[in-house]
Predict the 3D structure of the following.
Amino acid sequence: MKAMMLKSFGGPDSFELCDVPKPVPGAGQVLVRVHATSINPLDYQVRRGDYAELVPLPAITGHDVSGVVEAVGPGVKSFVPGDEVWYTPQIFDGPGSYAEYHVADESIIGKKPPSLSHLEAASLTLVGGTVWEALTVRAALKVGESILIHGGAGGVGHVAIQLAKAIGARVFTTVREANAEFARSLGADVLIDYEKEGYVDAILRETGGHGVDVVFDTIGGDTLSRSPDVLAQLGRVVSIVDIAKPQNLVQAWGKNASYHFVFTRQNRGKLDELSALVERGQLRPHVGAVYSLADLALAHARLESPNNGLQGKIAIAVEPSLIS
């Protein structure tokens, strides 16, 4: 099979298209023909060596799969060849999704929502599972509460807006002016143009000084230390960003705030919850660009670019017929 191999840590050109043996499913495993995958910040972090101690080289990386079951191993009961499936591979535990075939444990695989294309489904597995855990499990966002979502037009942020609205929350989000209409179309209630106004002043003005119940950090920087300035009492901060630099959180003490750090955990339950929202019309991933597997380096370079002009996700068409 064809696969993009990461031969060394570094820039986007560190990948090489190679022929490698097709994997064989073991007991409790499923062999999937990958139709589409996508790119997340995690993918370029892995590529450049941020997790070098966890990724033996050469490696097939990638963290989203949408495809069709090719074969099943002994003991598999939930899937048969021909089923359309989606999932996030076990991160740092075996080959990833930048290949024509992938093997995964039955327990982490879900039935693909029928209304989503493979490109759309592959754009939702990792970010959708991350957002689900961040908002419903860790932040325990409730009907009638308010949330500030940083980076509402991004791959994670645009899903977070939709999930927060499905829960019944009031959504504040930071976007640049060019992405304002996109964020509004997803259901955001209050848009903050971070290039023109600080989000702390905007939140305090819009909430009458009360603040928001939850802050969802997708951008890093000084968000952890500044979040208490916009939190209501007993507020929660959830971050999905690696932040190596220590930050002073003394202000959080006065708000009785709690902080949560999320690195997504794979399971079928999250996918089934997301699928239900998709089929009810409450959630849909936005594919901002599509590249072929052979053009993976170009896709990585674009996602890493600060002004990439993207809304939503970059999808990778592993199946050539998906390139229009």
About this structure: The chain has two domains: 2-124+285-322, 131-261. The mean pLDDT is 95. The longest helix spans residues 125-138. Residues 131-261 form a domain with the Rossmann fold fold (CATH 3.40.50.720).
